[in-house]
Design brief:
With 949 residues, the chain is mainly beta. Helices cover 3% and strands 42% of the residues. It is built from two helices and 97 strands. The strands form 14 sheets. It has a 34-stranded mixed β-sheet that branches. It has an eight-stranded parallel β-sheet with strand order 4-7-10-13-16-19-22-25, with no helix packed on it. The protein has a seven-stranded mixed β-sheet with strand order 2-1-3-5-8-11-14, with no helix packed on it. Helix 2 links the parallel strand 78 and strand 79. The protein starts with a helix and ends with a strand.
């Protein structure tokens, strides 16, 4: 009975206190809170009273810690004077200022609306509203979930803020209308079963660090109402000490400024849900679930999903710049691009360390500009209708030790290639737009049953083998180099049958033995076709086009198959549009090539498509007419003609001349671009004529005329003469050989390694080379161009183009002999010359200085020296070229032209001081140019624009 009485008394007192609560309005005659005259009605508010402060002459100044029930504040300033004010009921502040102390809210509602809180705020209320207020010092807000707290936003927080949401079935919403600004760090903690909504509308700025926590099923959402959130440069968003173990952390329209690395680590069943977010720095996310839509990751994104349940399917539309994704969960798949394609601008790595599915490129056209690496057979690209398109401008690779299964695969690269470093397969379609896919027998592309390939061209195909499974006709989009040569097969019998095809653009090296019904096997290129599974016999079709290097119109084309020891004739090919097809189905497979049964007067393949460093081999053709015509189209501006004498048992035609003529046009006289003439003994040796500069868009005629009986000794019209020749399209006409320093050793080394068509040039201008005693002459071999940088006549440096940009000098590189005198004895020996210049070789743009003048010619002094000695070569055609040189300080001859030289051109040279004063009273003589036994007017010997003194 006594306990009941005590409880009754307490309740009565509480009821009495509530019944006698007073509502006070501030009058403010003075600032003293404790002055009853400052309140209406007169009195001093206590913890049971309601207070309204909206007018008065002065604002209140606290005299100590005060407690009230309800507070309504507008317009005025409450000076806490270092004390605290605690509101136990409802705090409704529509304007005004609270300063200089601590403000506590411990009631049902705290509404901060347009208020300046210039003091620490500690609010634990049923619900809280934050609208248009400024908080200059720390602020702690905890809502108890009595009702949904919805603030309109527009607040500025100038110090650290803590916002905690508890309770059930209620939300806490910030910035419902206007964005907030957080200038300090902010911590969000949710232990409710409903969300905290941050940055709901407008633009919210986070100029400090953001720290989210969630320990219940409510989660935290940024900008879910259409607003935006921006994280300042140098700041981070990271999970707090309470952790994030439940529900969603949604980052929508969230933008990170700057490149500071971000790390988000969630646990339990929590999920990171990013929508239209932008991270400019590296970001690492580890969470039980990860969902992505329309995000941009400008740094490296490292994403690890480690959940134990649930499938996580992301919409897509994301842009990645370097990505690593790992499904490390013990259960549940990861699926990307379920509705929108993703874009990968750099390398991407996909793993499944948890052994669960990773499904990439589920729908849409997903583009990859970098390398792809997969580390599990659970990583796939073929679970729906999505396409993977390679778009990078650099070379790209497929890496890892597992097969890449694609639904649709496209190659669309303006430059570079895609190289498979493991196997790959296509279920639906392989699409070629630009760029090449490179495979090998170990890293094989397999086209599955029902798949197709299309769009290939000379700029886009598979360079390497392709395997096709199925029972439908198929085009293998294969090629090599810059040549697309597809191979088509008719339909096999069974859906499990498999064939593999590959094209090689080089000439075959398997062997030269062949059936008697074919005399020439193409060395333009060849195919390999293998039957891997099944017993179907299909008919292969081998492609050609107008650019094909074979001379396909000479004779019906045969198709030959290598049987391991020789090329077997599979009969004349049937022309089907742009394909050459075997006349019947094949029963055996392997290497296939075009072949011909050439007869007299029929050309093989012209032109060859080779580089200058490669050899070329022709085919023997019976030259049974006086003139032989060949049509060819060059694929580079410079061509090289080579004649061969390959069979000692045959007579090869003594070629009189070869003319390169433009293709005949109706009512038009053809142009002659190049005329090459040969001596009668041309049939005895191999002959090279090089550097005819042609237009690659034109077709040309090569007119070959041979000597006939009576023109030369030993030629009989009754003899069967043959022609063996090739035209090489030189990808680079000549090879630079750097003459690396100013010592004689580097020059001698460069000259020793230079070959036909190469040129030797100095590494720097104005070099000075001294040839020591006993090391003359320097030998310039056939076809070699020795050049310097001397350009006294301002005529430039003449080199086949394009070669090298060699600057010229008015002083120029000088080569001089320390002493190259030799005893003249019915002729000057080789050591008496600085240079031996062989036929078809060139010396140009050099200053050549002898051992100094002062020696008489052979009439008075037998100790003489010479400059350049032209050497005839019976095995070489072409001219000796000496141009734009200064030749001086010699006593025998500046240039000595051997009597057996066919043609010597001396152009734009200055030749002087080729004499000496000698001994006694005699004046020594020398010769600027001595053409021994030659008529100076002979067309074989030309001197143009030279100066002598």
């Amino acid at each position: 009975m006594k306990l009941k009485y005590i409880l009754f008394i307490i309740i009565l007192i509480a009821a009495s206190r509530s019944s006698f609560a007073t509502s006070f309005t501030w009058v403010g005659t003075t600032t003293d809170w404790a002055n009853s005259n400052n309140w209406y009605p007169s009195g001093i508010p206590d913890s049971a009273d309601n207070v309204t402060i909206s007018s008065g002459t002065n604002g209140p100044l606290l005299d100590g810690n005060r407690k009230i029930t309800n507070l309504t504040l507008s317009s005025k300033t409450i000076n806490l004077n270092g004390y605290s004010l605690t509101v136990y009921g409802t705090a409704t502040m529509t304007s005004g200022t609270v300063t200089n102390g601590t403000f506590y809210a411990r009631g049902n509602l705290a509404s901060f609306n347009g208020t300046l809180m210039d003091c620490p705020v500690d609010a634990i209320c049923g619900y809280i509203r934050l609208s248009g207020s400024t908080f200059n010092e720390t602020a702690d807000f905890t809502d108890l979930g009595a009702a949904t707290g919805t603030g309109s936003g527009g607040c500025t927080f100038n110090d650290d803020v803590t916002i905690t949401h508890t309770g059930t079935l209620t939300y806490f919403t910030l910035a419902n209308t206007t964005g907030d600004t957080f200038n300090g760090n902010v911590t969000f903690t949710n232990s409710s079963n409903r969300e905290i909504h941050i940055a709901s509308s407008g633009a919210t700025l986070f100029n400090g660090n953001v720290i989210p926590n969630s320990t219940s099923s409510g989660g935290i959402s940024f900008a879910s109402g259409g607003g935006s959130a921006t994280l300042a440069s140098g700041k981070t968003i990271s999970i707090g000490s309470s952790g994030f173990s439940a529900d969603f952390l949604t980052l929508k329209n969230f933008t990170q400024n700057g490149s500071t690395a971000q790390t988000l680590t969630l646990t339990g069943t929590a999920v990171v849900n990013m929508i239209a977010a932008t991270f400019n720095g590296n970001i690492t996310v580890t969470a039980p679930g990860i969902l992505l839509k329309n995000n941009t990751f400008n740094g490296t994104a490292t994403l690890t999903r480690n959940g134990s349940s649930g499938n996580h399917q992301s919409d897509g539309g994301n842009t990645f710049n370097t990505l690593t994704l790992d499904n490390a969960g013990s259960a549940g798949r990861v699926r990307w691009a379920t509705t929108l394609p993703d874009t990968y601008n750099a390398d991407a790595t996909f793993s499944s360390t948890g052994g669960q599915d990773v499904q990439i490129a589920y729908s849409g056209d997903n583009t990859f500009a970098g390398n792809i690496t997969i580390n599990s057979n659970k990583v796939v690209f073929n679970t729906n209708t999505g396409k993977v398109t390679f778009t990078g401008t650099n070379n790209q690779t497929l890496n890892g030790s597992y097969n890449y299964p694609f639904k649709k695969l496209a190659i669309n690269k303006t430059s570079g290639t895609v190289t498979a470093n493991t196997t790959l397969s296509v279920d639906d379609s392989l699409i070629f737009i630009q760029g090449k896919l490179i495979t090998t027998s170990a890293n094989l592309l397999t086209m599955k049953h029902g798949s197709i390939a299309y769009g290939a061209s000379n700029s886009s195909f598979v360079s390497g083998p392709v395997k096709k499974i199925g029972n439908s006709a198929f085009v293998f989009n294969v090629g090599s180099g810059n040549t697309y040569r597809p191979l088509t097969i008719t339909a096999p019998s069974n859906s499990t049958d498999a064939f593999t095809a590959e094209y090689y653009s080089a000439g075959q090296t398997l062997g030269s033995t062949k059936d008697t019904t074919i005399t020439f096997v193409s060395d333009c290129g060849y195919w390999k076709l293998d039957r891997n599974v099944g017993s179907s016999n299909i008919t292969p079709k081998f492609a050609f086009d107008s650019l094909h290097c074979d001379y396909l119109t000479v004779k019906p084309v045969h198709i030959a198959l290598w049987n391991g020891t020789k090329w077997t004739d599979k009969g004349e090919a049937v022309t089907e549009s742009t394909n050459k097809t075997t006349i019947s189905a094949m029963t055996s497979y392997g290497y296939f090539v075009f072949a011909y049964n050439l007869k007299a007067g029929e050309a093989p393949q012209m032109p060859y498509e080779l580089s200058s460093s490669s050899g070329c081999s022709g085919s023997d053709m019976l030259f049974d007419n006086d003139v032989f015509w060949i049509s060819f189209k060059p694929d580079s501006a410079i061509v090289k003609l080579t004649l061969f004498n390959t069979d000692v048992n045959k007579w090869y035609a003594p070629i009189k001349s070869m003319d390169v003529i433009s293709e005949y046009q109706l009512n038009q006289i053809p142009d002659t671009f190049e005329v090459w003439s040969f001596p009668c003994d041309s049939l005895l040796r191999n002959t090279s004529i090089k550097y005819a500069e042609l237009d690659t868009s034109q077709v040309y005629i090569l007119r070959i005329e041979k000597y006939v009986e009576g023109d030369c000794d030993g030629i009989k019209d009754s003899t069967n003469y043959y022609l063996n020749a090739c035209v090489t399209n030189c990808k680079m006409s000549i090879t630079p050989v750097l003459w690396g320093s100013d010592d004689i050793i580097s020059l001698q080394t460069a000259l020793s390694v230079a070959g036909d068509g190469d040129f030797v040039y100095p590494s720097a201008p104005n070099l000075e080379i001294l040839i020591p005693i006993g090391q003359t002459p320097l030998i310039v071999a056939p076809g070699v161009i020795l050049t310097g940088d001397y350009d006294l006549w301002s005529v430039g440096i003449s080199l086949p183009s394009p070669v090298i940009n060699l600057p010229t000098s008015p002083t120029g590189t000088r080569i001089r002999a320390e002493d190259n005198r030799a005893i003249y004895n019915a002729g000057l020996p080789p050591s008496g010359y600085l240079f031996e210049l062989h036929k078809s070789a060139t010396i140009q743009n050099l200053r050549i200085q002898g051992s100094m003048p002062g020696f008489q010619d052979y009439n008075f002094d037998r100790n003489l020296c010479g400059g350049i000695h032209t050497i005839p070569n019976s095995a070489t055609t072409g001219t000796h070229e000496i141009r734009n040189c200064e030749i001086y300080n010699l006593s025998y001859a500046g240039v000595f032209v051997d009597q057996n030289c066919d043609e010597v051109n001396i152009t734009d040279c200055q030749i002087h001081h080729i004499k000496g004063e000698g001994g006694g009273d005699a004046i020594g003589k020398g010769y600027g140019v001595w053409s021994k036994g030659k008529d100076v007017d002979n067309s074989k010997y030309n001197r143009r624009s030279c100066k002598y003194n």
